[in-house]
Design a protein that fits this description.
This protein has about 220 residues and is an alpha/beta fold. It is about 60% helix and about 10% strand. The chain has helices at about 5-30, 45-55, 65-75, 75-90, 95-105, 125-135, 150-160, 165-180, 185-190, 205-215, and strands at about 35-40, 60-65, 115, 140-145, 195. The relative contact order is 0.16. Adenosine-5'-diphosphate binds near residues 42, 65, 91, 118 and 173.
């Protein structure tokens, strides 16, 4: 074989390899699941933003509060374990929450990821999530922390009027949020993927727009 045709052969193989690499990268990237964490006090608009982000990113929302409410309504074993915590506005035990989240995330509908609304709510839960995702070779895409004044939160919650939206329980949920979930902000800040959203007076469209521009 002449030197020229050897060179041409080599160039053609290199080109094939480049094309293969390009497409496998595209396929791999498009298959990487997308996990987003939403942090925010009760009434901060986490749930609303989760619904919008789920639509935009094409992955379902997973709200641990909704899962627990469903379990209570269906009077399951988990429901019986968490009902009292929910009535008081304190956190369900971590081992129960872990179990519930693990079972949910294994479902087919979350194969492409999830918008996590209300989980993690403390550092041990965040560590559990990191381990769970790492064992699948995935990381969090972004952690969005909604910062809303206490005055605004109270106003919104009293308007919402869910069963656990009564002043004493609200106060407890806020205290729990500050003490248990507050440390998640510095925890995630270290990852370099935390987006702090502090937009006083903004409506839900403004918040969504702000977040989408930074995804
Ligand atoms: P909010 O954010 O408005 O307080 P949620 O619907 O997220 O409401 O949660 C309602 C209740 O469900 C909480 O007060 C708590 O008892 C329970 N809960 C939800 N998520 C978790 C979690 N990750 N860990 C422990 N308890 C949880």
């Amino acid at each position: 074989m002449s030197q020229f045709s050897q060179l041409r052969n080599f160039a053609s193989r290199a080109k094939d390899l480049l094309i293969f690499n390009f497409w496998s990268h595209v396929v791999w990237r498009s298959r990487q699941p997308v996990f987003v964490v939403l942090l925010g006090a009760p009434g901060s608009g986490k749930g609303t933003l989760a619904v919008e982000l789920a639509k935009y990113l094409g992955v379902p929302q997973l709200s641990t509060g909704d899962v627990f409410r469903r379990e209570v309504k269906n009077q399951t074993a988990v429901g019986r374990l968490v009902i009292q915590c929910m009535k008081e506005g304190s956190l369900a035990p971590d081992h129960v929450t872990f179990q519930v989240v693990r079972d949910e995330l294994r479902a087919w509908q979350y194969r492409n990821g999830a918008i996590l609304d209300g989980f993690p709510r403390n550092v041990p839960q965040a560590e559990m999530l990191t381990r769970f995702l790492r064992s699948r070779g995935i990381g969090l895409k972004i952690i969005i922390a909604l910062d809303v004044s206490e005055e605004e939160l109270l106003k919104r919650l009293l308007l919402r009027g869910r069963a656990d939206d009564v002043p004493d329980v609200i106060k407890n949920r806020m205290r729990v949020y500050q003490n248990e979930s507050g440390p998640l902000v510095p925890y995630y800040e270290r990852s370099g993927r935390l987006l702090l959203v502090s937009l006083p007076g903004a409506n839900k469209e403004d918040v969504l727009d702000y977040v989408l521009r930074r995804l």
